[in-house]
Specification:
- The protein contains six helices and 15 strands.
- Strands 1, 2, 3, 5, 13 and 15 form a six-stranded antiparallel β-sheet that branches. A four-stranded antiparallel β-sheet has the order 4-14-6-12.
- By secondary structure, the chain is an alpha+beta fold.
- The protein has a single domain, classed as Clavaminate synthase-like (Double-stranded beta-helix), CATH 3.60.130.10.
- α5 crosses α6.
């Protein structure tokens, strides 16, 4: 369903997915050396957040629409989110960007606009769309030409059309096709008890 619609929901746990990854035909992507595969995401004030993170840029306010792992050479195919605590907390916003009909300048910008991804020696050039899917995050991708700026402005303009996924109960998993759908977070200034687990997956060989 996530491949078809851009996202879907199910009742399970991220630990179940890790245990069944072979049967599901996916590979769990590590978050880094010696880190648990499941990231714990909480609303964090800017001054307490990690450098270069969305929390450092936006604090507990709204997160703009993006794909996860856009700063990696190979972003994850799927993002799985599980509400661990904080019923009726800030929504996750979703927009199936790859499935929309775009004006010609936007389509050209997605395919040919040049972005600088990351900073320093690890930075590289990329487009927002390739045959493998989308890569987009205004926090780590800098527009280098007019076509890329067209994409940046377009995404900002259509953010109001995103669907809100409301977290009614802990224990629900939101499955996001990370190469087709951009997602964000609503204002979490009043949702400090919100705790979300995140798992990043790549399709198996």
């Amino acid at each position: 369903m996530a491949r078809k619609d851009g996202w879907s929901t199910c009742v399970a746990s991220l630990r179940d997915v890790i245990d069944q990854q072979g049967k599901l035909g996916v590979i769990v992507m590590p978050n880094g050396p010696k880190r648990d595969a499941i990231s714990i995401l909480k609303p964090t004030p800017s001054e307490l957040a990690r450098p270069a993170s969305l929390s450092r840029l936006h604090g507990t306010s709204r997160f703009p629409l993006h794909t996860d792992g856009a700063h990696w050479p190979e972003p994850p195919d799927f993002v799985l989110l599980e509400l661990l605590a904080g019923k009726d907390s800030a929504a996750t916003t979703l927009l199936p960007l790859a499935k929309l009909a775009h004006p010609s300048p936007v389509a050209e910008g997605l395919d040919h606009g040049v972005f600088l991804v990351g900073r320093g020696n690890s930075a590289f050039l990329a487009t927002a769309r390739t045959r493998k899917g989308l890569r987009y995050d205004s926090g780590c991708m800098t527009s280098l030409d007019g076509r890329a700026r067209t994409v940046r402005d377009y995404v900002a303009r259509i953010e109001s059309h995103a669907t809100e996924h409301r977290w009614a109960e802990p224990g629900q998993i939101l499955v996001i096709d990370n190469r087709a759908t951009i997602h964000g977070r609503g204002d979490a200034s009043m949702s400090r008890d919100r705790v979300v687990g995140r798992l990043l997956l790549r399709m198996g060989p």
